[in-house]
Specification:
The complex is a heterodimer of chains A (about 240) and B (about 450). Chain A has about 240 residues and is of the alpha/beta class. Chain A has a single domain, classed as Rossmann fold (3-Layer(aba) Sandwich). In chain A, about 30% of the residues lie in helices and about 25% in strands. Chain A is built from 6 helices and 14 strands. Chain A has a 6-stranded mixed beta sheet with strand order 2-1-3-4-14-13. In chain A, strands 6-5-7-10 form a 4-stranded mixed beta sheet, with no helix packed on it. In chain A, helix 1 packs across helix 5. The longest helix of chain A is centred in the last third of the chain and has 19 residues. Chain A is globular. Chain B has 2 domains: about 250 residues, Mur-like, catalytic domain (UDP-N-acetylmuramoyl-L-alanine:D-glutamate ligase, 3-Layer(aba) Sandwich); about 130 residues, Protein-Tyrosine Phosphatase, Chain A (Alpha-Beta Complex). By secondary structure, chain B is α/β, with parallel strands linked by helices. Chain B is about 30% helix and about 20% strand. Classes of the chains: A alpha/beta (about 240), B alpha/beta (about 450). At the A-B interface, helix 1, helix 2, strand 9 and helix 6 of A face helix 6, helix 7 and helix 12 of B.
Amino acid sequence: MKILHLYYDIMNLYGDYANVSAMQRILEKSGEDCTVDRLSLGDNAVLSDYSFIFIGSGTERNRNVVMDDFHKYKVALKDYINSGKVLLMTGNSFEMLGSLITDAKGEKHEGLGIFNFTVTEQSKTRNTSDAIFKAEFSDKPLVGFVNKCSEIEGITDTIFEVVMGLGNNADDKHEGIRLNNFFGTHLTGPVLMKNPFFLEYMASLVLGDGKSVNTRHLGFEKSGYDVTLSELTKRLNS
Amino acid sequence: MKLFFTILICKLLRFFGGLIGKGSSLPGQIALKLCPDILSRISLPEYIIAVTGSNGKTSTVEMIAHILTTNGYSVAWNKEGSNQIEGVTTLILGASSLKGKVKADIVLIESDERFAQYTFKYITPTHYVITNLYRDQLTRNGHPEWVFEALSHSIYPATQLILNADDPLVSLFAENMEDVIWFGADELSTDVKQLRSVYNDGAYCPRCKKSMKYSTYHYNHIGHYYCTSCGYKRHDTDYTITSVDLEAGEAVINGKDKISLALKSLYNIYNILAAYTVASIVGIDGEKIAADMSNYVMKNGRVVTFDIGTNKGMLLTSKHENSISYDQSLSMAANDKNDCCVMIIVDAVSRKYFTSDVSWLWDIDFEKLDTPNVHKIILAGKYCNDLAVRFSYTDIPEERIAIFEDIDKAYDALSKENNEFIYVITCFSDKNKFLSLL
């Protein structure tokens, strides 16, 4: 199996690369041969070659530079998502798939337009929060962190219900976006490392029907998750 | 009259606060309520020196104060490290007469990066040192470019900027500025040709965002960089580390002034260089500065030596949520010629605010500890599981690693060692949990 870590050197702001490490290890432990390609600006990836694609978060300026390059993948990416293959985009990277990003200076940047949502950024306040997000596909909620300066309008197919943290915009108690096996979320950093149950779920989607996911190596991951969830829950109730 | 009373109240609050060992920011906070533009009404001395940046500001300020006072200058500075506008107000009013005139020769301000824009609206530095901009406390700072943007609002044309030429993002502050003094390091014997870091914040030019290259790296993305497209490059320096010998504990500035190091890290040398630069600008002779800085032991308690049974050790205060700070501490242990044991504690991520985020662990180059001299690694604290996961993605053999959620138990394990040197690497938020056990 092949994994693609796209824009690995410019969209990697909060330890996001670790998602790729986590996915590679769980696939290998589940019996797959697994290689990772790390590509960036100016490269030309054949998206259909991959079973899992990941893009992480970046500074607002870097994200806009990347978006100029990313436009070339529009058709291939649509096909990839429609074919049911697995794509994870964390932090502000998934904002590129909407129709428009208005930056803090008021300048407009055209998105790939795979979705109709719009993004508005400001430079006054960094909106950050620890997060507990509930998902319908999992008994256990996800834990993590949101670190952003944007509001997103126009997403209907969200992934999460916000228990703690920030939604797609100030009035929205829901977060992220999902279509088939594409997951976009403003959770930053090593989301799969911190949420072993989410990793297991994603790995099962990558492996497909009939193949079982090996999770025996995830002991510390599970204990770490329990500690974080308990700390956040205490905070929520205090 | 308003000026008089505001200063008086601030002084009284500071005095009584001092008696009960309380905060250096509250008096300033109340003064600002009474008179919001109080800082612009104070008459200030010729030198207003400010220091900001992600890492090293407290140490740099302490060193500058040490050199200046040793050489006969009176200096008003925020020793307590309250570096937002309230703390600076307490400092300035505390040093001022009731008529509003600061009695010191020099005001020296450590400023928080994001709040500098509010402080310096009223009190503009004559000299402004920016040490570096790293990934630091991103759970509240966003990212280095976000901090750059906030800091850019704190810079005024009349100010002389004193910039770290080896930091590509910091150097960008020189754009459109007339008066800039540069400090940095020549190619050093400790340099590397390939980046040694988990991530690369020097991959792209901060000005045009095309690819950057380096002729040499001092550490992480700090080094001699040049853009392959727009011509942006590391600036020549006015004040320069010309050579270092970390083993012998020596650094030479400007090819002539040799300094013996109390703390043998490159990091410390950069702080010394920034202090050297400021003191030189004020007019102190380089040779004199070198003598003042030689074997100078910081008083800010960030490095603590200790004994546990037959073992000696050193606690290196490293900032959680700051991978370069950790990388530097790990290098110190890894470069030790003798066998050692390293203990890392992550129990509370921050002492000032709540977060449970440990993403930053993935930005730290723990692989550095994969050297034969580091034969034991102890991971401790509430987030020991996250540390264990992180270490499982290094090549360090599992049998070298021990894991304890309970810091007491980790301490017991340490005391069973024999004649070891122990490095304890942790943050302000957690260091007393270890030191209290001694």
